[in-house]
Amino acid sequence: MSFLHLSFYSSFILSTLGLAFHRTHLISALLCLESMMLSIYVALSSWPIENQMTTFTMMPMLTLTFSACEAGTGLAMLVASTRTYGSDHLHNLNLLQC
């Protein structure tokens, strides 16, 4: 395994662990999700270059598009929860109260 693959895997695993263990604020969960998407984007961008394949060159753009949609939705949820509850703590968000 090359150093490049090790860095992709470790950044994705560290982001997943951050999402699993630091679930206090919504903004920290969103940052962990964005770092996961960034590591996936960089890995998908370097994969066609390493294998000299031009068929998978559209995948990083699709991943980046979905990441932008996810970021916009997450920020909208952050603004809505901050206006409603006064903070971005995740323990305030309970889906059973709806």
TrEMBL record:
<keyword id="KW-1133">Transmembrane helix</keyword>
<keyword id="KW-0520">NAD</keyword>
<dbReference type="GO" id="GO:0098803">
    <property type="term" value="C:respiratory chain complex"/>
</dbReference>
<dbReference type="Pfam" id="PF00420">
    <property type="entry name" value="Oxidored_q2"/>
</dbReference>
<dbReference type="GO" id="GO:0016651">
    <property type="term" value="F:oxidoreductase activity, acting on NAD(P)H"/>
</dbReference>
<feature type="transmembrane region" description="Helical">
    <location>
        <begin position="6"/>
        <end position="22"/>
    </location>
</feature>
<feature type="transmembrane region" description="Helical">
    <location>
        <begin position="61"/>
        <end position="80"/>
    </location>
</feature>
<keyword id="KW-1278">Translocase</keyword>
<keyword id="KW-0830">Ubiquinone</keyword>
<protein>
    <recommendedName>
        <fullName>NADH-ubiquinone oxidoreductase chain 4L</fullName>
        <ecNumber>7.1.1.2</ecNumber>
    </recommendedName>
</protein>
<dbReference type="GO" id="GO:0042773">
    <property type="term" value="P:ATP synthesis coupled electron transport"/>
</dbReference>
<dbReference type="InterPro" id="IPR001133">
    <property type="entry name" value="NADH_UbQ_OxRdtase_chain4L/K"/>
</dbReference>
<dbReference type="GO" id="GO:0005743">
    <property type="term" value="C:mitochondrial inner membrane"/>
</dbReference>
<dbReference type="GO" id="GO:0030964">
    <property type="term" value="C:NADH dehydrogenase complex"/>
</dbReference>
<keyword id="KW-0249">Electron transport</keyword>
<feature type="transmembrane region" description="Helical">
    <location>
        <begin position="29"/>
        <end position="49"/>
    </location>
</feature>
<dbReference type="GO" id="GO:1902495">
    <property type="term" value="C:transmembrane transporter complex"/>
</dbReference>
<keyword id="KW-0813">Transport</keyword>
<keyword id="KW-0496">Mitochondrion</keyword>
<keyword id="KW-0812">Transmembrane</keyword>
<keyword id="KW-0679">Respiratory chain</keyword>
<dbReference type="InterPro" id="IPR039428">
    <property type="entry name" value="NUOK/Mnh_C1-like"/>
</dbReference>
<dbReference type="GO" id="GO:0008137">
    <property type="term" value="F:NADH dehydrogenase (ubiquinone) activity"/>
</dbReference>
<comment type="similarity">
    <text>Belongs to the complex I subunit 4L family.</text>
</comment>
<comment type="function">
    <text>Core subunit of the mitochondrial membrane respiratory chain NADH dehydrogenase (Complex I) which catalyzes electron transfer from NADH through the respiratory chain, using ubiquinone as an electron acceptor. Part of the enzyme membrane arm which is embedded in the lipid bilayer and involved in proton translocation.</text>
</comment>
<keyword id="KW-0472">Membrane</keyword>
<keyword id="KW-0999">Mitochondrion inner membrane</keyword>
